[in-house]
Design brief:
Layout: E1 10-14, H1 19-27, E2 35-40, E3 54-59, H2 68-75, E4 83-86, H3 100-128, E5 131-136, H4 149-168, E6 174-181, E7 184-185, E8 199-200, H5 201-213, E9 218-221, H6 225-234, H7 237-244
Bound molecules: NADP nicotinamide-adenine-dinucleotide phosphate.
Length: about 250
């Protein structure tokens, strides 16, 4: 199957307890699905999906990079993998300069693990001659603020890597797309003050599913964030500082 992914037979959801990840699955066309790998630290039942496909749990620890090559081999052990959704993520917190260990975890999960897994999967997909990978970046990567820049930096790195890899993959039948959600109501943001344009995981799932099926390489959820990202990147520092303070 070439770019313009339509109806996957085999999917890997990496970070299968992710509420956004599960919402993406729900909005994909699953009529031809035969196997869905659910990769997570702990078993994760998928809620709200009716499919006769085999849902196969695979243990995955993002910080254990030595295990990742073997993990990716498992995803291809039964045949081709049509679609990989990389939904792992750790928010860290706002206390860089007081809790660097937390920032380190976000760096390891969001950038190192997600980028490495993406590259390993892409390599195997090139061998099979087709495939699509979705990685979840964030609107937070648009421009550094004083409150979430450690997290934003990990997503900026991942985003850059994904877009670069997508360029490298041109002509191979394999492609990578990047989703940049804003503030989403999930376990990750539970208890936090909501930002403007906050959406549910369902909304993000819908946008992601149509991004996967399209030939686009970048998508925003909700879509209003696309022009907002452009405006944010052009604002003078003092103005940006003022409007982004929360
Ligand atoms: N929620 C938002 O506002 C928002 C906005 C923009 C982007 N995103 C991104 O969207 C993606 C999904 O987030 P979500 O909102 O659905 O949050 P979530 O439900 O907390 O999902 C995060 C996922 O990452 C996994 N994970 C974290 N550390 C891991 C590790 N060391 N090893 C293996 N898995 C690990 C979690 O597994 P466990 O269940 O084992 O912890 C979970 O499956 C993330 O990349 C996040 O950064 C979220």
């Amino acid at each position: 199957m070439l770019n313009g992914f339509k109806s996957p037979q085999t999917i890997a959801l990496i970070g299968s307890t992710s509420e956004i990840g599960q919402a993406i699955l729900k909005h994909l066309p699953l009529e031809n699905l035969s196997t869905c790998y659910l990769a997570s630290r702990s078993p994760s039942p998928i809620v709200g999906i009716s499919s006769k496909a085999a849902f196969v749990p695979i243990a995955f620890e993002a910080t254990d990079t030595h295990s990742h090559e073997k993990f990716v081999q498992q995803l291809f052990s039964q045949g081709d993998l049509d679609l990989a959704i990389i939904a792992i993520g750790a928010l860290g917190n706002d206390s860089t300069l007081s809790d660097e260990a937390n920032a380190l975890n976000a760096m390891q999960v969001n950038y190192v693990a997600a980028s490495y897994i993406m590259a390993l999967i892409a390599k195997k997909m090139v061998e099979q001659g087709h495939g699509r990978i979705l990685v979840i970046s964030s609107f937070a990567q648009t421009r550094p603020r004083n409150d979430n820049f450690a997290y934003g930096s990990t997503k900026a790195g991942l985003d850059f890597m994904a877009r670069g890899l997508n360029e490298k993959l041109r002509g191979t039948g394999v492609s990578v797309c990047v989703l940049r959600p804003g503030f989403v109501r999930t376990r990750m943001t539970h208890g936090m003050v909501e930002a403007p344009f906050t959406v549910s995981a369902e909304v993000v799932g819908k946008v992601a599913a149509s991004l996967i099926k399209s030939k686009k390489s970048v998508g925003y959820a909700p879509s209003i964030l696309k022009p907002l990202a452009l405006i944010f990147s052009l604002l003078p520092p003092a103005v940006f500082r003022k409007i982004s303070q929360r």
